[in-house]
Amino acid sequence: MIKNYIKTALRNLWKGRVFNLMNILGLSVAIATCTLLFLAISFEFSFDNFHEKLPNIYQLYTTANRSSKIEKSTSMPIPLAPALKADYQDIENISRMANGGALVKYGEKQISLNIHYVDEGFLKIFTFPIISGNTNRPLQHLNDIVITEYAAKALFAKGVDPVGKTVELKLNNQAQSFIITGLAKDFPNNSSIAFDILMRFEMNPNYQQALNQWDNQNNLVYIQLNDKVDVQGFEKRLQTFVNKHFTEAINNIKRDGARPDVNGNVYTLNVTPFAHNHFNTDINGLEGAVVSQSSVISLLVIGIFILVIACINFINLSVARSFTRAREIGVRKTLGASKLQLLSQFWVETIMVCLVALVVGLVLASMVLSGFKANLKINISMGMLLHPTLLLTGIGLFVLITIIAGFYPALLMLRYKTVMVLKGSVNTTKPGKVRNTLLVVQFAISTLLIVCTLITWQQTNYMQNKPLGYNKSEVISIPTGNGVDGNQALRLFRNVVNGDPTIVSVTGAYDNLGNGKDGSQRTSINGFNYNGHELRTAIQKVDYDYLKTLDIKLIDGRDFSREYATDSNAVLVNEAMAKQISTKNALGADLPMDDKYKSRVIGIFKNYNFRSLHDDIMPLTLVMDKNYPINYIFVKVKPGNLIQGFDHVSQKWKATFPSVDYKGSWLNENTEKQYQKEKRLSTIFISSAIIAILISCIGLVAISIMIMVQRTKEIGIRKVLGSSVSSIVMLLSGDFIKLVALAAVISFPIGWWVMSDWLKGYAYRITIEWWVFALAGVAAIVIAFITISFQAIKAAIANPVKSLRSE
After folding, report:
1. Is residue 235 exposed (0-12), middle (13-18) or buried (19+ Cβ within 10 Å)?
2. How far apart are CA 405 and CA 385, in angstroms?
3. Is the dihedral of CA 340, 341, 344, 350 positive or negative?
4. Domain range list for the chain
5. In which element (H, E) is residue 328 found?
6. SS3 for 474?
7. Is 240 exposed, middle or buried (0-12, 13-18, 19+ CB in 10 A)?
8. How far is residue 743 CA from its own chain's centroid?
9. Which residue, 136, 419, 569, 724, shows the most beta carbons closer than 10 Å to its own?
10. How do residues 697-725 score in pLDDT, each as one tens digit?
């Protein structure tokens, strides 16, 4: 029986090969798109799942209910972790963590590697297997370190066991020897925590000076709770600890008009599940590549949209072909075929088409996989499809698609009355309503994607072109790296290029602007009491000529000057900070930013966007504090030939620091990198909109062919009675254009609601204009009209004699 079904199916599929090729094309493109999207979604949701104790791992963060806003921060004081572990038995393991870097040397080989300063409990909390060395306590002594397989390959020759070897690390400009006591397996790509070397937390350069400082918050803290601990109850019990150790912070917040939470607390210590870190955008300072869950869900929605459009397309194509098979069904029913046999026959045909589409779709997906990975910056492979969850989901979707796409057209044809079918008369009223409904759904989704594409493109373009308040097109940012002292490097490089006609000015800073090639981006926040209230400001350590190099406008006072020895204790503030200090004039104010001395405000500069446009401009203070290192050197080159200027700076750097990698980049490149998420989302929307419209148009072609066949005699009669080709084309296209216009109108409020909510995530954003919807609607209508017009013109110019011959 099955063999007979397959033979019959092959004959029927070949007979209707044009419609089937359209079906396969639409389905295969949809399958390829959905495969890539679902692989990306699966990868994002798999982050940190490899940790064996994941359900019990939490990260600490503080919540300060200030009068202006609620601040959540993961930065903790150094003495917190040991004190917390001593006070609460609910905690099985605890570990602090701070990031750093160092130049690591073994023999003649040296390389810059990333360091995580951690406590012994770190490897008990997280699953980073030690494959060689001391597996029980690899960080037992202060000079013990653990390195990854990647670091071992970079430092040692192939086949050399690194365990027991002594390496030299340059920390705080001092060379120190460490023993490798453990070799850790390389962390997977879906790990939020990434490192090359693990080192005892006590070796952190800031450890000794901040050992007893509860107001100096500079590290992360992870805990592993015992099984069956009531997390909410544990959080409530932490308030006793907070009241004991953070009294000054609580008093300051209350003094400045705090807004207590539902429990009456203004400052709390909270825990967040580490399993949720990858999608947690509400808390500042979480480790790893934090992404918006809404962005990932948008990928899922787009994938579902495309799958729905493909299924609708399949149904419409099958219904379109059902009219050519009506007599076949009538004859089969007359010869005694049961409904189950006919359903089975159609389902076998559907499965065969879907199988071919599946194979073609997977081949297409594998062909574009590398480009897709590069665009989304994720590490996925086709082999992930064999994961049990993805495999079962794929099989379920395949069966569901064959049922939805195969059974409805079959049931539709089974309803035809045998006598009417054999006479050549088929009632199509109900199928026409269903077909039109499906068509409206298709184009509503397509138009919605066009709207999203236009608004995403607008916002991305706005952020890239908005003036930020500093020169980003002529300034090069160079990370000093771990191998040199930044302050010394700045002085040396400034002397080397002094008098160079290509270079306008040179300066340095602690923090970068945007994302440079070193991938680092941070903002240092400082709080202090002034005139009876707390001031909070971002701190940027700079060197001379910072404002000059970046073309930042000084609106009052003066810049840092070498002529004034006291400028080492002076500060410059932006307009937002000046407003915080005084409503009249902040110039000359003495700010107690440090317990040892006061810092005088000698200048006020214009606000500039030193962070991304996701955030408002916050108060900023420029300092020349020696406690902050210079991590970045900024070089302003003369306009005219920027490419030549960049090459010239590169050559000068390499000649001055031959052992340090040159990772210079233009500041406009750095700022653009801040909006990679928006660019990727825009690319996905554009690609999805094109694919959705392509698949919808394939279905529209098939439906238009069916309609033209049904109305052949009507068209012939109209031509005989004198109708022009243009009037017939407009008549045949009119019904479809109305449906597409209706679909556009339905999509407009949905698109406005979705994108308005998305834009709320930006402090600086565009206003959604009416023309976006008009353009999207017109685009959908024009595309639909062009698609239909080919068949309409073909039908309109046909010889009416052939159409009316049977009459």
Report:
1. middle
2. 23
3. negative
4. 59-272, 482-662
5. helix 326-334
6. coil
7. exposed
8. 30
9. 569
10. 877 777 777 677 667 777 777 777 777 77
